[in-house]
Amino acid sequence: MTILETDRPGSEVDSGADALTLGRQVRERRIALGMTLEQLAAAVDRAPSQLSAIENGKREPRLPLLRALAAALGVTVDELLLDEAPNERAALEIAVERAQRGTVFRSLGIQPIRVSKATSDDTLRAILGLHQEVERLHSERAATPEEARRANTELRTEMRAAGNYFADLERAAAELLRGAGYSGGPVSQQMISTVAEKLGFQLHYVSNVPHSTRSVIDRRNGRIYLSSNLPSRDARAPILRALASVVCGHEEPRNYGDFLRQRVEANYLAGAVLLPEEATVSVLQEAKKQRRISMEDLRDAFGVSYEMAAHRFTNLATEHLELPVHFMKAHESGTLIKAYQNDGVRFPSDALGNLEGAMVCRNWTARTIFAQPDRFNPWYQYTDMAEGGTYWCTSRVEKAKEGLYSVSVGVRFDDVKWFRGRETPHRSKSFCPDERCCRRASKELTLKWQAAAWPEAATPTSLLAALPTGTFPGVDSHEVYAFLEEQEQRS
């Protein structure tokens, strides 16, 4: 514990202890010595009212007074500045006082109670419990779709400014690999198990993982639970995403911004381990030298999915190859699922600037690929944009339980010379967001069918659903806790 280094008059205390904790330390030590407030006030030459304000956490003592208090109480300044409550009762009082001074409590318009010796522990616990529930409900109501989209937009802006590259996560991944003895090539399932073991976790494959989760990590017993139905070739990424909470020091998310950031960091760390920075950059630099950069080759070199290879290329291309790029994942319906860019391409977005959920132009590579009969080979295409010039993209169709989706990586026309597939004759034009580009039917078809057509919309089940709530949005905590309890009792 440290205190302010200067001794000049008027200096304030600078420590980890807040005013409430410091006040309770003073009060408890005074009472332990059998001193009255008036006696302590006389010992430090201050008015009792001043000390009362300090003990109630309403005023912080300046450094000279803090030293005088420590001397009068027979302790050191460091002991008064301990950032822990002196006992359980004091901790409870501090929690209630802090809650009553918070913005949520003040917004209720309720007069705070005076916490005194006569206030029972049960009363304090009841007040604290009620406040915590009100705070939880307040947070859930604040988590509107607009707030979630705004948080997502802010995160994407931050990622774009960093070139979608996070040096701290790259270092963390490299350290994990060194600890597991990685020496090059694809990262094996056994090596991922070693990484988990080094971090103090055992892998457990079970048939009843809660349906609302991909994995469940039990920090108390050092276990990671994954579905036994998970294909072995895909097991590495879920394990690493689960371990990311430990490696990155994640705490329970306070809001959607925290939740989204943690998800991005978990995916990034998984990619950085499975496609190690040094080895991946070496492969890409050689491919650039040969003017044959290819997502398929990167995928095959490290034994990962096409999406992960494309995503990882997006992380490293600008930082190490001086290639601004963009990445897209789009559903066959045309809905944009995920997108990153630092090459100036204009993605579709809503009024808040959010990308996910927007409709991709029918003329973009991410959409035209669905019309191609050959799903085995990649689809290459140039697209002349209304704004920003011409872009070249490579795309591939993947399959998921939600249907088909495309994964695309693109660059500006000036940078296509480094990629395989640049000779493609396929070319299109896009004028979106102008609706005349691809969203409005021709005059002839409109006149013929407008009055005769009556389609029934295939409304998504999530259209009118509330935004998922909870500490981890969409996760059934009752189901998760019951699952962990069952697993613990079995062992």
Automatic annotation (TrEMBL):
Pfam families: HTH_3 (PF01381), Peptidase_M78 (PF06114). SUPFAM superfamilies: lambda repressor-like DNA-binding domains. CDD domains: HTH_XRE (cd00093). Residues 26-80 form the HTH cro/C1-type domain. The keyword Transmembrane does not apply. GO terms for cellular component: cytosol. InterPro entries: Cro/C1-type_HTH, IrrE_HExxH, Lambda_DNA-bd_dom_sf, TransReg_Diox_bact_type. GO terms for molecular function: DNA binding; DNA-binding transcription factor activity. Keywords: DNA-binding. SMART domains: HTH_XRE. The keyword Hydrolase does not apply. Belongs to the short-chain fatty acyl-CoA assimilation regulator (ScfR) family. This is Helix-turn-helix domain-containing protein. It comes from Leucobacter insecticola.
